[in-house]
């Protein structure tokens, strides 16, 4: 099992804990991580875009001018795509962009992402994150002590003071153990997680 240091809010090492290799030491599957990210972004798309084809545009039933004799190019309808006000070629229509991954694939992708953070030394465990009040400056100092900038901060419980203090820090996002996903883990440079949250993750995904 891999061992990682546990730091306090001052950035000092206080102990070491072992990580479960079934979660933080698996063989990295880049394909599944890619599919998970693509699926998550695709599932956010509304798919409500729409434009009219030439058959749906009002008017244009009559031939603009006769076929021969005018000296102009032959035309069949003023609603053809090359006319102003005409239809759109291959017009976009409402569609479902969602991509489905099964549970095993989702879990494997998440474990791969967590393992990648451990391998890159980008996983920082904090003994606890507690603030007496909502104070962005105090949270910025904590992150500075941990020497992180762009980070995903994972909490075990929804601590309002920590969440609100972090919300206005650029490049930092908070998440709970039941809301972590591959996209956020890979997007943010450092994975900052509390000791309690590590225990919960290992319990849920073991």
From TrEMBL:
GO terms for cellular component: ribonucleoprotein complex; ribosome. GO terms for molecular function: rRNA binding; structural constituent of ribosome. The keyword Oxidoreductase does not apply. Residues 43-52 have a biased composition (Polar residues). GO terms for biological process: translation. Keywords: Ribonucleoprotein, Ribosomal protein, RNA-binding, rRNA-binding. It comes from the Bacteria. This is Large ribosomal subunit protein uL4. Belongs to the universal ribosomal protein uL4 family. It comes from Vallitalea guaymasensis. PANTHER family: 50S RIBOSOMAL PROTEIN L4, LARGE RIBOSOMAL SUBUNIT PROTEIN UL4M. Forms part of the polypeptide exit tunnel. One of the primary rRNA binding proteins, this protein initially binds near the 5'-end of the 23S rRNA. It is important during the early stages of 50S assembly. It makes multiple contacts with different domains of the 23S rRNA in the assembled 50S subunit and ribosome. Residues 43-76 are annotated as: Disordered. Part of the 50S ribosomal subunit.
């Amino acid at each position: 099992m891999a061992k990682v240091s546990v730091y306090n809010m001052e950035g000092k090492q206080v102990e070491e804990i072992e990580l479960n290799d079934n979660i933080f030491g698996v063989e990295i599957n880049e394909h599944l991580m890619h599919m998970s990210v693509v699926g998550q972004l695709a599932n956010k798309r509304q798919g409500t875009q729409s434009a009219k084809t030439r058959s749906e545009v009002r008017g244009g039933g009559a031939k603009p001018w006769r076929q021969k004799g005018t000296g102009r190019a032959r035309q069949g309808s003023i609603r053809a795509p090359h006319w102003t006000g005409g239809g759109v070629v291959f017009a976009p229509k409402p569609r479902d962009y969602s991509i489905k991954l099964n549970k095993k694939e989702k879990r494997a992708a998440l474990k791969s992402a967590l393992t990648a953070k451990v391998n890159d030394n980008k996983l920082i465990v904090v003994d606890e994150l507690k603030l007496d009040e909502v104070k962005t400056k105090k949270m910025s100092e904590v992150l500075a002590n941990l020497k992180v900038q762009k980070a995903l901060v994972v909490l075990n419980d929804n601590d309002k003071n920590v969440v609100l203090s972090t919300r206005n820090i650029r490049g930092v996002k908070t998440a709970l153990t039941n809301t972590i996903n591959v996209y956020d883990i890979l997007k943010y440079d450092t994975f900052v997680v509390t000791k309690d949250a590590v225990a919960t993750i290992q319990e849920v995904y073991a």
